[in-house]
Amino acid sequence: MAGKPREPEKSRAARFKTAIVRYIESWSEGAIKIREEKTVGYRFVGTPRRLDIVLGCRGRYVGIEAKLQDSPGTAYQKLSYALQDARACPIPVIIVFAGSGIKDDMKAALITSGIGIEVGFEEGGESDRIVDHHNILRQRILIELGLDWLDIP
After folding, report:
1. Domain residue extents for the chain
2. pTM of the model
3. How do beta strands 33-42 and 93-98 pair?
4. Distance (Å, whole) CA 65 – CA 68
5. Residue 27 φ/ψ, nearest 5 degrees
6. CB burial class (10 A; 0-12, 13-18, 19+) of residue 83?
7. Tens of pLDDT, residues 16-32
8. 114: helix, strand or coil
C-alpha cells in the first residue's frame, strides 16, 4: 500500500522567504496584509515583475525581494539586476539579503542605495528564523507603510 506522497523539500531560498514572512507576522499583529509572489509593474528589461512579498496597510504598499546567496557564483549579477528592478518598481521595494556568497562591495552597494537590508538567517527546519540586527528591517517596513516606529527598541 502506497503511503502519502512526501512534500518536496523547500529550497533554502524558499525557506528564507518563508522566514521573512513569519518574522513580519510575529510583530505585525495582523495589521499588515502579506501577499507572496505578487506581480507589480515591469522589470527593467520589460517583462512583468513578480515580487517575492508585498506588504500593504491602509493604502500603502512595500515590496520585498528575498535574496539568499551562499556561493559567490552569479550573486553579483543577480543582485545588480534586483537593484535595478527595485528602482523601476511602481512601489517602494526592499531587498532583504543574507548569505556568505555576497561580497562586501555588493553589500555596500545594496545598503548605501537605501534599498538593501542585510539580515541574519538561522536555519532550523520549521524554526528557520530571521535575525533583524537592530530592528532595521522592521523599522523600514513600518516607515514605508506609514506606521508608528518610534517605540521600537
Report:
1. 27-144
2. 0.90
3. unpaired
4. 10
5. -125, -10
6. buried
7. 999 999 999 999 988 99
8. coil
